[in-house]
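Aim 2, interim progress. The first record below pairs a target sequence with its structure tokens.
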Amino acid sequence: MDSVTQAALGAAVAGVVAGRKCSPKILLAGAALGTLPDLDVLISYGDPVSDMVKHRGFSHSMLVLLPFSLLLAGFWHKWWPTRFSFRHLWLLIAACLITHPLLDAFTSYGTQLLWPFSVSVAVSSIFIIDPLYTLPLLLMLVAGLIWHQQMARLCRIGLVISSCYLIWSVVALNIIEDRVREQLDGTPLAGSPVFITPTPINTVLWRVVVLDGETYWEGLTSLLDEQPDVDFLAKERGSWLLAEKSVYLNMLESFTHHFVKYEQVGASIKVTDLRLGLAEYLPFQFVLASQNSEGSWAVTDPQRLEGPRVSPKHLPALWLRLLGNQDIDANLCHIKECPKPIHIGV
């Protein structure tokens, strides 16, 4: 999630754990602790693929954060005496640190909660920025700064509301999963890999990607749709053209669970993460091979390409699709002149 959300969550958690001892300083400390794990973005792993794959690694691991919280609590308790017992202080620090990766695990990016073990958790029920999750926390924190005596109680209210919204996101995801599974059953794509994620800043409109060899199917479905069937568009996924796979391609395929597409662009092969983004706006694109003057292909050191930016003219179409207008195609580029649903496998 974004830094504002993580800071707000850390502050609210600190306020709840502190209870009657809560103060503006405690909220500030909680906000700082809540954003601390994301400082790993300052670390360079030497190439753009590693920077992407290894983000949310050791700094988001329960196996690192728990002992780190003990060390930090011990250092804090010794050098900055507080009204908190060591146990209470450790609980506050640990709760602020651990809730950060737990929230991140609900996004589609993936979080290595058990690093160094290669276990990546990605529930994919909430977008990385969602005001409906963040605003209750921020409003209650502001209210707590105004009414100091109710600070802990207001933090608790904000945390309950945001947590209920997070639970709702999982419920909505299950509804969409059931909808897609029922549509694919009995078709050649039954059992194919499926990726489902919410579209930006909501949990009503969802993006669905289905892998089908060198093709992938992409569609949008809203909880407000009158017809539950997803209108899919078939898109070219391509394949890796070289006999040799680089270590970077293996990393990327493992990280994305093979939800990538391969595309020859001039004298380069571009590999794109299909999970993160929307329609044609996929931000994580890498050049992993190039062709020399003799026409031979060879793997290269990865180079990240700048992804296309969302055009403001497409935002109204996204809003209409969210409201259940099924005449908007999956590229969100235009209203279909002759709406004709594409049913997978038919």
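The second target in this work package is listed in the same format:
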Amino acid sequence: MKRRELERWERRLHLGAHPVLYPLIRGLGYRRPVQRIPGLGILVSDAGLLRQVLMDNERFVKHGRSASGGLWTPVVGPKALLNMDGAEHLEMRRRLGGVFTARSVAVMVEPAAARLRDRLERELPAGRGVDLVREVKELSGGVIAGILGLPADAPGRLPDRDLFDLGTSITSLVRLGRHELTPPQAAKARSAVERLAGPARAAYRDGAPDTFPGRLRELGMSEQEALGVVSAFVIVGTETLVSFIPRIVALLADAGRLSALAADRNGLPAAVNEGLRFTVPSPMMLRDAVASGTLGGVRYREGDRLLLSTIHAAKSLGGFDPERTVPPHARQLWFGAGPHFCIGMPLAMAQINSTLESLLDIYARQPWRIVSRRVKHRVLIPGYETLELANE
């Protein structure tokens, strides 16, 4: 019963986000591992072939006109990490390699995580309901402030929720069937980026090494390069985390695993990893072919768009099972692979783990449950509109 319930909610989430494309692509993906879909591109649904594409930065690029990185070039400029390839991209990653230490991640996450923890500790034990989606949006906005180098007491500082809304106003412009942003869409996104860039620019010029922009300056990046990198992390992390954290909480509740995890946290890393595999917070990745060749028996040409269906690659392994051993070719595909493996993974995991630890701490003292939930509709990343928790 529990397995059917959690799988039912998972299907509802995806159908809410993509009522037409989800059943179409899911149905096609089980027919052949690689196939051409007119008007969309070449769908790749096999984990091994998907990893092969991600590892091959010579033939398949992220910065192409219709690939995911190319969408953002008119918004953040050509050097924002998420839209770079080749030697320049590798050099940028090398320079950023030491940025995501435990200390630097804590500086960006802990203030917002502490505010979230205080709200949960205040509301749930008092018998008041908490909308976890709203709370995670506040967390995300607080982390955006950390990325921008914006202290909580800065004059005129936007509230955390407003910072989140600015970030999501950029990411909400992306659609699977949209090969590029229109000029008005790009202008809207640039306007939001510029509002976010103001505090980051000030932090960069101040040069304090305990801020993210100041650390980028210390690494020798120009102001424009630093602002591009800051913008990239705001864009990439906003929607996926606000989608995933309520989903993993719902998944653990639906699977009946909260009591065991509240009593013993040793199983939490495996549960989170399996939650990432099962929910696939990045269900599709995009690449452009820059050469001709054959993949899985299908001929591709220069300029073809590849739809890398991580949702097929991950979900083909079966239902939610934290005891599962994921085969090497499918491991962590939701974070990418090869040169573009998500460099911000430590930042994402810090937000996930801090929220789950806070909720489990409260659950150990006084169990709570999901009292209501609503699915988001017509969005790029499937997720809940609301997920309300309350004491049992």
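The beta strands are 34-37, 41-44, 60-61, 130-131, 285-289, 293-295, 298-300, 305-308, 368-375, 384-391. This observation will shape the mutagenesis plan for the next reporting period.
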